[in-house]
Structure formats: C-alpha cells, structure tokens
C-alpha cells in the first residue's frame, strides 16, 4: 500500500500528474485544491505527496490520489465515508480547500456544500449528517499562502517546455514566440492562455 511519494514532477495534465519516484513513474490524481498549489511548480522540480491508495474488487486497477498534508488525506477518508460519495466523485468534488469545506459542514451550510462539483442538496445534507461534529481539526488547517512566484513566469516555462520538447521548435524561436504573445496580451496568467495566444499568432 502506497502512503507517501517523493520525487520529480514529470508531467501535469488536467486532474493528474506523473511523478517519478525511484525510477518508477506514478500517475497521481489530484483534487483541484491540491493541483492549485502545484501551479508554480515546473516540470523537473521535486515534490512530495501523501497518497490515498484505492484498489477494490470492483476497481482492481490501483488509483493513487495525492495530498499536500497528511491531515488533508485524513479528511478525504472521512469524506468518502458519506453514503453515495466514492473516491472518484470526491476527487472531483473537492474544488475548494479542506478548511472551507470543514467549516461549511460544522456551520451546516448546505448552500456552500452545493457549490462543490457534483454535490446536490440531498448529498450536501448527507455530508452534514455524517460528518458534523468531526470537522473541528480540519477547520483549523492553516490557510494556504499565496504562491510567491509570478504565475506568468511559470506559464512561460511550461509553454517553452512544450514548444521545444514536444513540438520541435528551437529555443530561440520559442522564446521569441512567447515574448511576442505576452507583449500582445499582458493579461495572460496561465500556460493555457499563453499557448492559445502563441497559436493564434502562428496561424
């Protein structure tokens, strides 16, 4: 059973990453609030994650779900104890921090819980009925600090990696394309926006 991984970030895509640890590449699913904390991490950087490892008779293929803190993993185990919430549904639902969800549960805030992806009123009430009174510890998780590194710098690095490593451009050409795109649109903050701007100019 895998409970913790430490290694090199090989790939980021959608709701998952590829993590190289001891010469093995592990595909790890990440809830949105965890993926957000990796926005400033570049390919090749070292990261560490606490892992919830799921493998059942109905789902024999192992699924690894990653968290920054052990207490977040513990919350996840509470969350999936609620009837009708499995691990995969929970990964998609957790699109705000554990701290906020825990506070909403203790406050019996059905409307806040309904904002979670895939959670309707009936399920929100089940969450409160099952977990109310057990969330104090999770409501005290320290608020995540804003990333120090500018998002656009990280976006440029990611787009550079794609242009050079995957699409075959020379480094000098890729730098020129990225600089021109950012000059045309100074509001760019993500790699997706930057890539779209680069693509638009090269059509």
UniProtKB/TrEMBL annotation:
SUPFAM superfamilies reported for this sequence: Nucleic acid-binding proteins, RuvA domain 2-like
A Pfam family matched in the record: RuvA_N
The entry's keywords: ATP-binding, Cytoplasm, DNA damage, DNA recombination, DNA repair, DNA-binding, Helicase, Hydrolase, Nucleotide-binding
One of the record's GO molecular function terms: four-way junction DNA binding
A Gene Ontology cellular-component term: Holliday junction resolvase complex
Role of this protein: The RuvA-RuvB-RuvC complex processes Holliday junction (HJ) DNA during genetic recombination and DNA repair, while the RuvA-RuvB complex plays an important role in the rescue of blocked DNA replication forks via replication fork reversal (RFR). RuvA specifically binds to HJ cruciform DNA, conferring on it an open structure. The RuvB hexamer acts as an ATP-dependent pump, pulling dsDNA into and through the RuvAB complex. HJ branch migration allows RuvC to scan DNA until it finds its consensus sequence, where it cleaves and resolves the cruciform DNA.
NCBIfam families: ruvA (TIGR00084)
Similarity remark: Belongs to the RuvA family.
Written domain comment of the UniProt record: Has three domains with a flexible linker between the domains II and III and assumes an 'L' shape. Domain III is highly mobile and contacts RuvB.
Name of the protein in its database record: Holliday junction branch migration complex subunit RuvA
